[in-house]
Amino acid sequence: MSSTEEYLEESKTYPGHKVRRPGSQVSRWFAPWKRGLGTWGFVLNRVAGLGLVLYLFLHLAVLSLLTRGQEGWDAFITLAKSPLFLLLDVVLLAGILGHGLNGLRVALIGTGLLVRWHRPLFIAVAVIAVLGLVAGALLFFSA
Amino acid sequence: MSWQITYKIKRYHPDQGSRVDTFQVEIEPERTVLDGIELIWAKQDRTLVFRHACHHASCGSCGLVVNGVEVLPCIKLIQDATTDGGTLEVEPLRNFPVVADLVVDMAPFFERMQLIGMPIVGPTGPLPGQEPDEYTAFENCIECGLCLSACPVVATDSKYLGPAALAAAERVIEVSEGRLSDEVLAAVDNEHGLWRCHAAFECSEVCPSNVDPAGRIMALRRRMTFERLRRLVGAKG
User: Fold this and answer.
1) B63 and B157 part of one domain
2) Which end of chain A is more exposed for a tag (fewer CB within 10 A), N or C?
């Protein structure tokens, strides 16, 4: 069930009658359950997009460590080589691959070029993303 | 053999607010979700408000959300919606004002269609040069509103023109060899028009008439993109 900020208002169609109006339902941007592959792609792009925006700010915060000199930066580099941090790198890679490849898919169907192929394209995007993610994870942890 | 089904129906009355009522129904699995609702109305609660007419997916008046997905309950079989002993969560369509219980005010749908001129376009069937399998008939739209309810973009942008009206606009252009009135063009080519669609394809997933609104929106977008490029090149030349 969707969570909505419902409110009552006077009906324009039925004067004198109060109707229950649905409010903005942002929660539906993150609810792919029981929905088609298209919605999974829609949700993927939103989740990954928000994650990448968050990463951008984290990245800027990390870069600001440079202002503390070599000592502060070296401490961060030590942290960055820890397994937990490498796992976060894998999550970042998942976001980049998911958002980037799915973005290409949306561009191809959104301009009317491969509309009928939107489901196979989503599966292709998922397969390529998973392969890229596995390769990237192996690279991160073996380097 | 009958199945025992639990119907959880979202109710609304202006004086009583919203609640969910639970009903136990004994019904054959080959019957429809609407049959079950009618049984509840006939034998358990005469105050239940719902809308229906034809019982065969041609009037488009009974659309509901059943277990989280938009359906026409008149053609949704019990056995396709749940299992013996299962539950059916029944809600009114989303993105519409609820008048009472399962009945919504369809005005937001028809207001959008009016912007496009409420087209009943023809000719039906593929146009010259169009392969039959490329053809999806907007003429088959039964104006049930499932597409508007399923669209996640309408859920956050109440001004978005929505799938049915945009599909109608594309069909109008298609049968008039690319021509579109300035009024319709203004309604379609803006931030709340065809560019707002985010390709979730949920409208096409739930459409009971295979109108494929999402495909039509993409076709309209391709048409407008080429038109803009043509104008751009023309302006430079």
Assistant:
1) no
2) C
- The CATH number of residue B39's host domain is 3.10.20.30
* Host domain of residue A8: 1-29
Contact list in A for residue B198 (CB cut-off 8 A) is: 42, 45, 106
User: For residue B96, is it left (φ>0), alpha (ψ between -120 and 50) or beta?
Assistant: beta
The CATH number that applies at residue A36 is: 1.20.1300.10
Q: What tens digit of pLDDT does each residue of B153-201 get?
A: 999 998 999 999 999 998 888 877 666 677 888 889 999 999 999 999 9
Residue A116 and residue A89 share a domain: yes
Q: Which domain holds residue B62?
A: 3-104
Sheet with B69-71, side-by-side order of all strands: B17-27, B3-13, B87-91, B64-66, B69-71
A49, pLDDT greater than 90: yes
Write out pLDDT tens, residues A16-30: 888 988 877 888 889
Q: Is B130 on the interface with A (CB under 8 A)?
A: no
- B101 touching A, CB under 8 A? no
For residues B214 and A106, what is the distance between their CA atoms, to the nearest angstrom? 12
Average of per-residue pLDDT values in chain B: 90
Rounded distance between C-alpha atoms, residue B83 and residue B66, angstroms: 14
pLDDT tens digits for range A53-93: 999 999 999 888 888 888 888 888 888 889 999 999 999 99
B198 → chain A, closest CA residue: A42
Nearest chain B residue to A106, by CA: B199
Same domain membership, residue A37 and residue A16: no
Q: Cβ separation of A109 and B225 shorter than 8 Å?
A: no
> Hey, are the CB atoms on A106 and B198 less than 8 Å from each other?
yes
